[in-house]
Design goal:
Structural class: alpha/beta
CATH class of the largest domain: Alpha Beta
CATH architecture of the largest domain: Alpha-Beta Complex
Low-confidence stretches: none
Largest sheet: 6 strands, mixed
Strand content: 15-25%
Distance between the termini: 38 Å
CATH superfamily of the largest domain: 2-enoyl-CoA Hydratase, Chain A, domain 1
Mean pLDDT: 95
Number of strands: 9
């Protein structure tokens, strides 16, 4: 960790975890230490069978303003170190988030730029405040978005917005990202934390096995692996959760999952 007290913080309340990006004074810009911490946190969450939802947020009213540029001169001017940063450190963390079997709800406030946009693109549900702003103005810094990262962002925000953000350093309001289908909802700023928590509670109250299977389906569809997906698609047939959901409906009572 650096002396700026940058970190990835995890908290737990019942079946819901909160993952917080923290870099005080820098709008939670991602340091290399934070990328390592994010990967470790995501991999840990993936192994917790009791977890049902994760809220991903930034500290202090900002989601994430991008990468911490103060670190860049130390590694960006060498091909090998630059490749390692993007392919191992950044993509390692993003891939761990994408592979997480637990639903991820992004609580987006303030700046959501560059690295923040990439992290938000890994989440399943995205809620934002009306004053949130989105972009990836790295063309001003003289370098492109790494290929895997660009493909991820483009898949979530669409081609037109991705091209404007990367080619023209376009910054866009939350409403435009809502129209593009990136956001589920745009809310008054003060309401975003409660709305994200309520959404997480809704998810946590539902069938956890079904949520994990849905996430596996979405990952397989994104990778074009329908044949592989179908091979085990119905293995849940005799599971307790499957039986409980149907039995509860027929008995006209709330289901008791887990």
């Amino acid at each position: 960790m650096s002396d700026k007290n940058d970190a990835i913080d995890l908290a737990r309340e019942g079946a819901i975890a909160t993952l917080t990006l923290r870099n005080p004074g820098r709008l939670n810009a991602m340091t290399r230490g934070m990328w390592h911490g994010l990967r470790a946190a995501a991999e840990g969450l993936a192994t917790d069978a009791s977890l049902r939802c994760v809220v991903v947020r930034g500290e202090g009213g900002a989601f994430c303003a991008g990468g911490d540029i103060s670190e860049y001169p130390a590694f960006r001017y060498d091909v090998a170190s630059l490749r390692h940063f993007h392919e191992e450190e950044v993509w390692g963390a993003l891939a761990a988030l994408l592979a997480c079997p637990v639903p991820l709800v992004a609580q987006i406030e303030g700046a959501c730029m560059g690295a923040g946009l990439e992290i938000a693109s890994c989440c399943d549900i995205r809620l934002a405040g009306a004053s949130a702003r989105f972009g990836a103005p790295i063309a001003k810094l003289g370098f492109p978005m790494a290929p895997r990262e660009a493909a991820l962002v483009r898949s979530q925000i669409g081609d037109a917005l991705a091209r404007d953000m990367l080619l023209a350093a376009g910054l866009h309001p939350a409403q435009r990202l809502l129209t593009a289908g990136f956001l589920l909802d745009v809310l008054p700023d003060a309401e975003v934390p409660d709305a994200a928590w309520r959404h997480a509670q809704r998810i946590a109250a539902l069938a956890p096995q079904a949520a994990r299977l849905h996430k596996a389906t979405f990952r397989a569809l994104a990778a074009g692996e329908m044949k592989q997906l179908l091979a085990g698609a119905y293995d849940y047939a005799d599971s307790a959760e499957h039986r409980e959901g149907i039995d509860a409906f027929l008995a006209k009572r709330p289901p008791r999952f887990g």
